[in-house]
Amino acid sequence: MGMYLDSSDGFTLYEKVQNSKWYVDKTELIPEVFSRIGTSENYICITRPRRFGKTVAANMLSAYFCCEKDAHILFDKCNVSQNIDYENNINKFHVISIDFSKMDDSCDNYEKYISRIKTLLSNDLRKCFPDVEFTDDSNVAEELKQVFEATGEQFVFIFDEWDAVFHMNFITEKDRHRYLLFLKNLLKDQAYVAVAYMTGILPIAKYSSGSELNMFMEYTMVGEEKFSKYFGFCQEEVEKLYLSFLSEEKEPRLSLNDLAQWYDGYHTMSGNRIYNPRSVSVALTNNNLGNYWTSSGPYDEIFYYIRNNIEGVKNDLARMVTGQQVRCEAKEYAATSMNLKTRDEILSAMVVYGFLTYSDGFVMIPNKELLGQFTDMLYKEESLGYVHRLAKESEKILDATIDGNENVIAGILEQFHDTEAPILQYNNESDLSAIVNLAYLAARDRFDVQREDKSGKGFVDFIFYPRKNEKVGIILELKVDSTADEAIKQIKDKKYVSRLQGKVAESSMIEEAILVGISYDKKQKKHDCKIERISI
User: How far is it, in rounded angstroms, from Cα 257 to Cα 500?
Assistant: First the structure.
């Protein structure tokens, strides 16, 4: 066993995953990979955002193929064991497994980074094959050729986070080209490659204008459906995990619907929705909903992508934070540039990195976990202009609603419409609802805000379902070229309050409903607000 050749890391790390209460069997990926051995389709690259199980899959493949430790103890109980070729490939290969995101803490240039990898791999080869006559000045690719010529051995290559080097701050454009040539010389048209499997965030071809790694078949979340079911959790898998959670947790504080709202919402190319597996697992472990997707400051990460063109995307951010989707020509190559400028480049990068999801020509914020990160940015980043200022005013608007201060609400909306000239020209109620939703951003901490909720005899624009310790619910109806009084009348006539009444049975805390009507007269360019309170 060496550092990179036949390392026991993959076996040990995958064994830990299997021992988790939230383990999901994704071993049917293994036959998809070993079926490529002996073919010209034996170069595979899987790209996904962080926290979608890429490393787990890489460790699984390493544990299965590696000849060093008997993997039957891990896989005989798994779905892969039912495959007709299961025994033909398990423990049959030497595996070269490298996580390119790992480096020595003293590394400050590309030469140190790549030289360490080359040296350690060369040492592994020489220890594993002591009878092979290696030349003194040979490089790693030549040493692998020498092993193949002497023994006939082919290798399985598992490269995790292959593109991590492109995000290291000391890497230059020249370094990037050298790195691509290193991978090309190591893998391309080499007889010793049984199969090469790589993972990353960004597609390979987008880094190179040439043909360095054009032998790889690339499988992205929005570009290729194949392999989609092996990364992320599908609905059926989450339901099984939740049943296991209920069987062990005496006081569950989250529901299956909570998991869907917080961690679902990503889309595969075919439109299937998938959950973030990392977040689901941690939420079930902690018996608590939270932001588990990122390990570093989410506000800083999101702002990194928009900082070069805030004016171009702030209106889209306003729409998406209020629950809308926006049209975008998502192009995965855009994320390779660290100097993103155009609107489509910025939104595309945010799709590739998992901050947004893409479906049928539109991008959107996938779930509440990510919505919280965007909301943090709106509150903190003054350069977002009216979007930031309206978000900051949202606490005042919520307080005015609960206090019944109609003039404050109408006045704030009036001010922003007259002085900020925002995206929305109020051509219809949908435009008005986006601004109103943004104006009530602070309400999300105290209420479960739902839009277009089926209630009574129709669809209500907004229902604010109270969270813990709140004794009132809010029903909000919008009108353009009508009156706020008419909005209140519609709430009553169509019995929208019935949904809040249904919640009374679930929570004895709910005592009242606040009915809010907001209107905008396009001719007079004037907002109006009416508020009524009723007992329920």
Answer: 18
pLDDT digits (tens, 9 = 90+) for 367-385: 988 988 888 888 888 888 8
Q: Which of 351, 340, 279, 354 is nearest to 306 (CA)?
A: 340
Q: What is the dihedral of CA 196, 199, 200, 204, to 10 degrees?
A: 30
Q: Which of 453, 413, 448 is nearest to 431 (CA)?
A: 413
pTM of the predicted model as reported, rounded to 2 decimal places: 0.86
**If you search the block for the tokens 């809040």, which residue do you land on?**
500
Residue 53 CA to residue 276 CA, distance in Å, equals 9
Q: How far apart are CA 350 and CA 88, in angstroms?
A: 42
Domain ranges for the chain: 9-230, 235-286, 298-384, 392-535
CATH class of this structure's domain 9-230:
alpha beta
Domain 392-535: CATH architecture, name and number where available: 3-Layer(aba) Sandwich (3.40)
Q: Measuring CA to CA, how many Å separate 145 from each of 70, 154, 278, 461, 497? A: 27, 10, 39, 67, 75
Neighbouring residues of 314: CB distance < 8 A, sequence distance ≥ 6: 306, 384, 385, 387
Residue 358 and residue 330 in contact, taking contact as beta carbons nearer than 8 Å: yes
Alpha-carbon separation of residue 460 from 447, 471, 515, 531 (angstroms): 16, 20, 11, 16
Q: What percent of the chain is helix, strand and coil (3-state, nearest 5)?
A: 45, 15, 35
Distance CA 179, CA 160 (A): 15
DSSP-derived pairing of the beta strands 472-480 and 512-521: parallel
453-482 confidence digits (pLDDT tens): 555 555 778 888 887 777 889 999 988 889
How far apart are alpha carbons 464 and 272 in whole angstroms?
A: 29
